[in-house]
Automatic annotation (TrEMBL):
Coiled coil: none annotated. One of its GO terms (molecular function) is hydrolase activity. Residues 7-190 form the Metallo-beta-lactamase domain. It holds the Pfam family Lactamase_B_2. This is Metal-dependent hydrolase. The keyword Hydrolase applies. Keywords: Hydrolase. InterPro entries: Metallo-B-lactamas (IPR001279), RibonucZ/Hydroxyglut_hydro (IPR036866), UPF0173_UPF0282_UlaG_hydrolase (IPR050114).
Length: 226
């Protein structure tokens, strides 16, 4: 599966002929200053929760591309009130079949509020089944045994986990999470953007290798096959 990394927790995959974008936070990320959000392709935008570092560029990219925005009901309502017409709700436990495949939402252990401080419901992650491969993006979360439910629903080609610690899982727990969802390939996200989530990338890769897993840490703007 082709994956494009845009910094922080923002990435896209191409599946079923569609560009599927996750948690666009680009214009506010100094590390992603060379990324032009007006050039990003998206047919779908999945939003894991309402924090600004996951939702900042949703409206702009949705308006640019007419992508369908998918999120829990509170995200659906919030984005709809911003004038975006193509929005679909998907709460934890629910699943929806789109033209690229099927998406199922899973709970994430994390706080949630919108940039204006209003209630944003709960945080979540998504597992996607497609003809081109299957993936799980946990969103911002701590390690939770609920992740075992992902492996019961889908056989994964890879998973996407936060590894920056402090606000989410760190490397150690992300390794345990990979075991719970039965994924031997992991894209690491949510690290280095802010001072308190900086990591030693070489050490992180080494720890995953020692656990028999492969950690991908592409550069911002880089495309990889995973």
């Amino acid at each position: 599966m082709k994956l494009n990394y845009y910094g922080h927790s923002c990435f896209s995959v191409v599946a079923g002929g569609k560009h599927i974008l996750f948690d666009p936070f680009i214009s506010g990320n100094e590390l992603a200053k060379d990324i032009n959000i007006d050039e990003i392709k998206a047919d779908y935008i999945f939003v894991s929760h309402g924090h600004y570092d996951h939702i900042l560029d949703v409206v702009t990219i949705a308006n640019n591309t007419n992508a369908m925005v998918v999120g829990i009901y509170e995200v659906y309502d919030y984005i709809s009130k911003k004038g975006v017409k193509n929005v679909h709700p998907l709460n934890p436990g629910g699943k929806v079949t789109f033209d690229f495949g099927t998406a199922k939402s899973f709970i994430a252990q994390h706080s949630a509020s919108f940039p204006d401080g209003s209630y944003a419901g709960v945080a979540c992650g998504y597992a996607l089944k497609t003809d081109d491969g299957n993936l799980y993006y946990s969103g911002d979360t701590g390690l939770t045994l609920d992740m075992e439910l992902v492996a019961k629903w889908v056989d994964l080609d890879f998973a996407v986990f936060p590894i920056g610690d402090v606000l989410t899982m760190g490397v150690d727990d992300a390794i345990e999470a990979a075991k719970l969802v039965k994924a031997d390939k992991v894209l690491g996200v949510h690290y280095d953007t802010f001072g308190f989530i900086k990591i030693d990338k070489d050490e992180a890769v080494k720890q995953f290798e020692q656990a028999g897993l492969k950690l991908f840490l592409p550069g911002i703007g880089e495309s990889i096959d995973i």
